[in-house]
Design a protein that fits this description.
The protein is α/β, with parallel strands linked by helices. The protein folds into 2 domains: 44-113, Four Helix Bundle (Hemerythrin (Met), subunit A), CATH 1.20.120; 127-314, P-loop containing nucleotide triphosphate hydrolases (Rossmann fold). It has helices at residues 3-33, 44-48, 62-72, 77-90, 97-113, 139-151, 169-180, 193-206, 224-239, 256-269, 287-295, 316-324; strands spanning 127-132, 157-161, 184-186, 211-215, 244-251, 273-277, 299-303, 311-313. An 8-stranded mixed sheet has the order 3-2-4-1-5-6-7-8, with helices on both faces.
Length: 328
């Protein structure tokens, strides 16, 4: 190979390297610009729009069709009947789609605001927060996302790896926490979760941390011994003298099964609020209304992706718009 050929090959390699660097920068910048969003599937607007006739009037069987659309979106029977009763009192037969859409949006927001999630100053005081839920709900990932969110408010967060029953749970938490630069207190394999929590509380106090987030075992709500262990953990947390918050993580794609899980957990150990995960996938979204109406629990956050930043503060108005907007 002569000098000319070597120069051509070197130039091509340099061009390829530059192109790869530019692609990398583009992907990084696009990821930085991406804003997490909630897009329920299927969108209610697509289900409701065909109910109107060509003249823009309500069909005679609009209640039955609207009921079917709401139930298919996991809104639940109680919330659905509340919405239908209210619309029935307000709507005229000549109501157009946009009018019904606006009224429906108002009803959804009213139901959610009846169980408000007061997130203002949520992490101002030192506290322990138990993150509970069944395996597969995204509990551990959500806990680290929450830690990242709290860190963004200038707070020092400590994680307690108390899911000592599931193989690999502690390692998973350590890996995720490493990405978020959050310290973790862990125990020995199969060690009592309450014992690990006790040690974590001591570290929490000694290091002057602001928030202790506790990763609990993903216990089935039907397993009495595991529920009893969870109750014990709450007692240990309360004995520290710090305020204790309990947040329930639910997989939104589970629909009405998630509602039953929530009911059982609340009866057993209580909960101040809910974090719904997997709202970026096949979740229909209506389960938020069912939880608010039937359990009186506010939704605090929505998990909408795999990145650590993919945790949205729940807003009733934005939720209603996403559920009914034609833009999705």
């Amino acid at each position: 190979m002569d000098i000319r050929q070597e120069w051509v090959v070197s130039s091509l390699l340099l061009a390829m390297l530059i192109a790869l660097c530019l692609i990398g920068v583009f992907v990084w910048a696009r990821k930085r610009r991406r804003r997490p969003s909630f897009a329920p599937k299927p969108n209610l607007w697509k289900r409701l729009r065909p109910l109107w006739t060509g003249k823009g009037q309500l069909p005679l069987d609009w209640k039955e069709k609207l009921e079917e659309a709401l139930l298919s979106a996991d809104v639940g029977y109680r919330a659905t009947h509340e919405i239908l009763a209210s619309l029935g009192r307000q709507l005229a037969q000549s109501a157009g789609f946009e009018e019904v859409q606006a009224m429906l949006m108002q009803q959804i927001v009213a139901i959610l605001k009846a169980s408000p999630a007061n997130t203002e100053g949520l992490w101002d005081e030192r506290q322990a927060c138990l993150i509970i839920g069944v395996n597969g709900s995204g509990k551990t990932t959500t806990l680290v996302k929450l830690a990242r969110h709290i860190q963004g408010k200038g707070k020092k967060v400590l994680l307690a790896a108390c899911d000592t029953f599931r193989a690999g749970a502690v390692s998973q938490l350590e890996i995720l926490a490493g990405r978020a630069a959050v310290p973790v207190v862990k125990g020995e394999p199969k060690q009592s979760p309450s014992a690990v929590l006790y040690d974590a509380i001591r570290v929490f106090e000694a290091q002057g941390m602001d928030t202790l987030l506790v990763d609990t075992a993903g216990r089935l709500h039907t397993k009495a011994p595991l529920i009893e262990e969870l109750k014990k953990m709450r007692r240990v947390a309360e004995s520290s003298g710090f305020p204790v918050r309990v947040l329930l993580v639910l997989d939104a794609t589970q629909g009405q099964n998630a509602l039953e899980q929530a009911r059982q957990f609340v009866q057993a150990v209580g909960a101040q609020g809910v974090i719904l995960t997997k709202m970026d996938g096949t979740a229909k979204g209506g389960i938020v209304l069912a939880i608010a109406m039937e359990l009186g629990l506010p939704v605090y956050f929505l998990g909408v992706g795999e990145d650590l930043e993919d945790l949205l503060l729940f807003d009733p108005s934005s939720y209603a718009e996403a559920l009914l907007s034609r833009s999705f």
